[in-house]
Design a protein that fits this description.
The chain is an alpha+beta fold. It is 60% helix and 12% strand. A hairpin with a 5-residue loop joins strand 6 and strand 7. Helix 5 packs antiparallel against helix 9 and helix 8 packs antiparallel against helix 9.
């Protein structure tokens, strides 16, 4: 998944035309100054003049923000922009008053009220324009700082997501050989003992691995698929030790369509077989329940094996990796608990958010 970063600063024409508020504020200030102080004709007669002068000031402001690209160390760009506004106003005013016709049909400097309006607009523009430019610069710096902070936040979030994905993939890569080596060790024990069941177990293992291995590196699977894998695994283990392992599977039908990380349920069951049933002299029983409870899904794996304190090898790396994968995927929305089950055995309970798999 890619993240589109917001550009911290517009360029080109988008920048030149991005100061509509500056244009409006400058024009209104000039019109009010002219109308109230210099007593010019109604504002409607010179509205076009004022708008063009304001546009000229804004264009000068925007051009000096992009050009020249490099400035001497002693000249700050904001100073150049403010000076540009102060120079653009009288130059634009002279050009506009000279170009636009008037009712007298004479040059504006020969018409007294036009000459007064020209002087009033220049005085007002030079008094108000640079301050408006400074205000626009402050607002621009604030917007740039906000955009830059947002950009850094997006980049940080993207890097964190990539780091979590890498760590999750590493944990899933650790799960695959851990499970495969354990299962192959079980087959080797049968072969070493000369058991006549070894060929049948090996065929069952090959059929199982054809279904299981492609799912080891998937981002998610469903509890229904997990239950099918668990049942195939338990049948395989039952063939290896038919007199020492019994099991039962109970799942709500609505829970089968819920998503879960791959090899989640299988990790709990394989841990119960390896650390609970295998070390027990008489074997034991494994009961698996999957219940759908509103926004949660409860998975419970109970065994009657040797228990937590009867094995020196602990519960292995499977549960540690599973806890870490759950934390990376769900945060605090998922939990895994492993408790002693009297008189002997272990109960592993997994609480997952109930989310349906996409169609």
């Amino acid at each position: 998944m890619s993240t589109t970063l917001i550009s911290a600063k517009p360029r080109g024409l988008a920048l030149l035309l991005g100061w509509r508020r500056l244009t409006l504020a400058l024009c209104v200030a000039i019109i009010l100054w002219r109308a109230l102080v210099f007593g010019c004709p109604p504002a409607s007669e010179l509205g076009g003049h004022v708008l063009l002068i304001g546009l000229g000031a804004v264009l000068g402001f925007g051009l000096l923000e992009q050009w020249p690209r490099r400035l001497p160390p002693w000249l700050a760009r904001w100073v150049l922009q403010v000076l540009g506004v102060a120079v653009a106003i009288p130059l634009t005013a002279f050009a506009v008053f000279s170009w636009l016709p008037n009712v007298e049909g004479q040059p504006f400097w020969e018409v007294e009220h036009l000459r007064g309006c020209f002087m009033g607009i220049n005085v007002a523009g030079l008094l108000v324009g640079p301050w408006i430019a400074l205000g626009a610069l402050v607002r621009q710096k604030e917007a740039f700082a906000r955009d830059q902070a947002l950009r850094f936040e997006l980049e940080r979030s993207e890097l964190e997501r990539k780091a979590l994905d890498t760590r999750l993939h590493l944990l899933q890569a650790q799960v695959a050989p851990h499970f495969l080596f354990n299962t192959l060790a079980n087959v080797q024990a049968l072969v070493d003992a000369g058991s006549p069941q070894a060929p049948a177990v090996l065929r069952a293992l090959i059929a199982y691995l054809r279904a299981a291995v492609p799912r080891l590196h998937e981002a998610s699977t469903t509890l229904g698929q997990e239950l099918d894998l668990v049942q195939a695994y338990l049948e395989l283990m039952h063939m290896r030790m038919p007199d020492r392992l019994t099991y039962s599977l109970h799942a709500d039908e609505s829970a089968r369509a819920l998503t879960c990380p791959p090899i989640t349920l299988l990790t709990l069951v394989e841990n119960a077989v390896r650390h609970g049933i295998d070390p027990a002299e008489d074997g034991g029983r494994i009961d698996i329940e999957v219940r759908h409870r509103g926004e949660h899904c409860l998975v419970r794996v109970r065994d009657t094996g040797v228990g937590l304190h009867s094995t020196s090898s602990g519960l292995g790396t499977g549960l540690s990796n599973l806890r870490e994968r759950l934390r990376l995927i769900f945060g605090t929305r998922a939990s895994l608990s492993v408790t002693e089950r009297p008189p002997h055995g272990v109960c592993a309970e997994l609480d997952l958010p109930a989310a349906a798999a996409p169609a």
